[in-house]
Amino acid sequence: MSRLFWLNDEQWSRIEPLLPHYGSPPRVDDRRILSGIVHVLRCGSRWCDCPAEYGPYTTVYNRFNRWSRKGIWQSIYAALTGDGRTHRQLLADSTHIKAHRSAAGAEKGEQCQAIGRSRGG
């Protein structure tokens, strides 16, 4: 089973009209490149590790980067979700990390001795 992400027909039909249509010659690989962008963002890999099935990783990265600077991703997000907030108000990931108190970087043994003293030990 392939672990690659591909935009299905319904997703593509909603996104395609939102894409910029300028330049010559027209781009013919938008669906493949956008699928590659979503794949990299979903799995959290580096751009250079983007599978070759999506095309050259430099094209995938350059398209993502260029459209980010032009605000195209915010327009796509707003159109697909019906959310007209500005990009400063959007929050895509609300997770947080809790670290154990021993993860503070103390020397080995210091933490245990300090805890023992605070407990009267």
Automatic annotation (TrEMBL):
<feature type="domain" description="Insertion element IS402-like">
    <location>
        <begin position="7"/>
        <end position="76"/>
    </location>
</feature>
<dbReference type="InterPro" id="IPR025161">
    <property type="entry name" value="IS402-like_dom"/>
</dbReference>
<dbReference type="Pfam" id="PF13340">
    <property type="entry name" value="DUF4096"/>
</dbReference>
<protein>
    <submittedName>
        <fullName>Transposase</fullName>
    </submittedName>
</protein>
<dbReference type="InterPro" id="IPR052909">
    <property type="entry name" value="Transposase_6_like"/>
</dbReference>
<feature type="region of interest" description="Disordered">
    <location>
        <begin position="101"/>
        <end position="121"/>
    </location>
</feature>
